[in-house]
């Protein structure tokens, strides 16, 4: 995996955008909708609207950054998100999986390590979804063992 993408810097760039472009990114209804708004191109100058970048930009407004943040799955468990809602994300296909994920992000308002989670969103393969589920259940198994 290349380390040339700095997802934490991308989050910082989002925070530096004017209110209008940030609002455009928050209001968009689907990842594909980002390709037709100026805010996306201001956030990612010189990038084409590939599926990878659309996924990242679609979730970006709802995730803050901290280097020491817990994995997202663990945060969902700590906020007592019902496992069925997480399974909706895992079992759905694009774009419904991202729509379900964004709803969870809007509810929980998590802080993630963008450098780690950015790659997960960028690729968003079945194993990336499974990692989210594993993080969720590892927290639950740790609580029941205590």
From TrEMBL:
Q: Which InterPro entries match?
A: CRISPR-assoc_prot_Cse2, Cse2_sf
Indicate what this protein is called per its UniProt record: CRISPR-associated protein, Cse2 family
Tell me the organism's taxonomic lineage. Answer: Bacteria, Pseudomonadati, Pseudomonadota, Gammaproteobacteria, Chromatiales
């Amino acid at each position: 995996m290349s380390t040339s993408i700095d997802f934490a810097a991308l989050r910082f760039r989002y925070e530096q955008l004017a209110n209008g472009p940030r609002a455009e990114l928050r209001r968009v209804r689907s990842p594909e909708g980002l390709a037709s708004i100026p805010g996306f191109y201001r956030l990612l100058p010189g990038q084409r609207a590939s599926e990878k970048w659309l996924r990242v930009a679609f979730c970006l407004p709802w995730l803050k950054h901290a280097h020491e943040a817990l994995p997202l799955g663990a945060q969902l468990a700590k906020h007592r998100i019902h496992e069925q809602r997480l399974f909706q994300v895992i079992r759905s296909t694009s774009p419904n999986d991202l729509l379900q994920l964004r709803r969870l992000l809007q509810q929980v308002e998590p802080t993630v390590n963008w450098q780690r989670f950015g790659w997960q969103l960028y690729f968003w393969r079945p194993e990336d979804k499974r990692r989210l589920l594993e993080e969720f259940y590892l927290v639950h198994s740790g609580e029941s063992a205590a």
